[in-house]
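Anyone up for a design puzzle?
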């Protein structure tokens, strides 16, 4: 009996959605292959595919309110974030990749006079993506747009608890004129639907965003089956490095450090969950940071004034509280939060939490908690700041704050992470590549023209001239 995917605890979501079985995944992959080979999409001029994708973006704009509501209900994200960031960001991604697709070029290489040697990038055919629950639409858009723009047929599995906004996009894709079967959204569990995608021999490339634990399983499944190209975007434990001279940035520093730590209740892969602050200003910075964190409104995600909604489920909340308790028992000071509060029955609301004086070996400093929890550590030298920042097997993101640009850039270059922002918290816009190092990921980047590399493979063609 297949599980029904129920809306998350405390949401107002409607009818459960049936999960797609492993056997059905296989049928979908076979049919996707047929659709690809038919050329209804892959055979179009790139410019024509771009026009259809731009129509999809327009339809998403038309239905922006619906998409925001579904995202808010399924993921428990504050509606304001969905309306102001997630939905517009997803629409912008579709537009950006659509507009880019007829500007991709190959190369001619410097072979001898009797030869023309060139390279081109070709779609794989059938490709797949597996998504996390924390940014369902934004992550879907980062994958749908470049994968389809180059002509692939895409099978996309949303996270178990957050399928509805992505299913709505599938309906809009049909309305925009993307032929049936080119984009398939298959809701389901990781253990069945996701695992079947990872093992399917027809899928040429799979782009995964989610936890490092699951990424390892998917990579192993690909290795044991058809060696499909796997791209992994996974977890993080990102540092925010704050030098004394950055306090001059005033409210900008505090508000961005807060955003970096607590957006989406800290359930964000680039969350700056480790604050590293120069000892001489640690007291002042921490006081201002804690005051701003205390002012965040924990509440019903559907209330436009809410800053912090629920965490994804009760298990996640219990795990967070246990790790906080363990740190406290080991000698850490809880400056703020560290508790669950009742807002809506069934939801799990962890209050913004700040700890300092954390023992160096505490789990809270090394595990991705994926909740509204930050630790504050101090440093006295630049070298110490860099060593602390790099003290993690992850390598997704970091931010560095200093008014001395030479120092800020030097430190940014010394941090082992794929995305570093200076004097801001930012993942960059669509022109900058996004991807992790180390246990945060490998195999390709999202965003920028380089994202097309995940969805295409390079072919070298050697033409011998006979003259
Ligand atoms: P998760 O790993 O539990 O699940 C991610 C997806 O994988 C889901 O769709 C799930 O159903 C599927 N899955 C689970 N087991 C599977 C299996 N055996 N085979 C195939 N698929 C399987 O992650 P999550 O809890 O949904 O998301 C949170 C994680 O995602 C965090 O670690 C976060 O840092 C990470 N994340 C990373 C990025 C990034 O760009 N680096 C972005 C967002 C989230």
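Challenge accepted. My sequence:
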């Amino acid at each position: 009996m297949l599980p029904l995917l129920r809306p998350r605890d405390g949401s107002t979501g409607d009818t459960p959605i049936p999960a797609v079985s492993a056997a059905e995944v296989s049928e979908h992959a076979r049919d996707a292959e047929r659709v690809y080979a038919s050329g209804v999409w892959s055979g179009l001029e790139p410019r024509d595919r771009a026009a259809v994708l731009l129509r999809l973006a327009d339809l998403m704009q038309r239905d922006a309110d619906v998409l925001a509501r579904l995202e808010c209900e399924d993921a428990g994200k504050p509606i304001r974030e969905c309306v102001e960031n997630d939905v517009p960001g997803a629409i912008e991604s579709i537009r950006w990749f659509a507009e880019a697709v007829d500007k991709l070029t190959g190369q001619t290489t410097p072979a001898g006079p009797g030869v023309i040697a060139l390279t081109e990038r070709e779609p794989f055919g059938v490709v797949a993506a597996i998504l996390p629950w924390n940014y369902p639409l934004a992550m879907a858009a980062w994958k749908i747009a470049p994968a389809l723009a180059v002509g692939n047929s895409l099978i996309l599995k949303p996270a178990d608890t957050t399928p509805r906004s992505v299913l709505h996009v599938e309906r809009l894709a049909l309305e925009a004129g993307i032929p049936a079967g080119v984009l398939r959204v298959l809701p389901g569990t990781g253990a069945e639907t996701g695992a079947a995608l990872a093992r399917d021999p027809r899928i040429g490339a799979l782009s995964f965003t989610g936890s490092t634990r699951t990424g390892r399983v998917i990579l192993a499944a690909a290795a044991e089956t058809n060696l499909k190209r796997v791209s992994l975007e996974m977890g993080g434990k990102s540092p925010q490095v704050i030098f004394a001279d950055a306090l001059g940035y005033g409210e900008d520093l505090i508000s961005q450090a807060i955003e970096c730590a607590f957006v989406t209740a800290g359930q964000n892969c680039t969350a700056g969950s480790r604050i590293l602050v120069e000892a001489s200003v640690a007291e002042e910075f921490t006081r201002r940071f804690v005051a701003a964190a205390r002012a965040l409104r924990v509440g019903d995600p559907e209330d436009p004034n809410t800053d912090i909604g629920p965490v994804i489920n009760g298990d996640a909340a219990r795990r967070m509280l246990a790790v906080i308790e363990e740190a406290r028992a080991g000698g850490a000071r809880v400056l703020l939060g560290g508790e669950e509060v009742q807002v809506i029955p069934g939801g799990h609301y962890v209050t913004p939490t700040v700890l300092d004086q954390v023992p160096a070996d505490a789990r809270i400093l090394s595990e991705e908690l994926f909740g509204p929890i930050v630790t504050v550590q101090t440093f006295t030298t630049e070298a110490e700041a860099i060593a602390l920042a790099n003290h993690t097997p992850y390598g997704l993101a970091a931010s560095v704050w200093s008014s001395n640009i030479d120092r800020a850039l030097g430190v940014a270059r010394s941090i082992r992470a794929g995305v570093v922002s200076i004097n801001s918290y930012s993942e960059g816009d669509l022109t900058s590549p996004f991807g992790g190092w180390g246990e945060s990921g490998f195999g390709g980047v999202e965003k920028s023209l380089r994202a097309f590399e995940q969805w295409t493979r390079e072919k070298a063609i050697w033409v011998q001239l006979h003259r």
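A detail worth pointing out: Residues 79-100 form the longest helix (22 residues).
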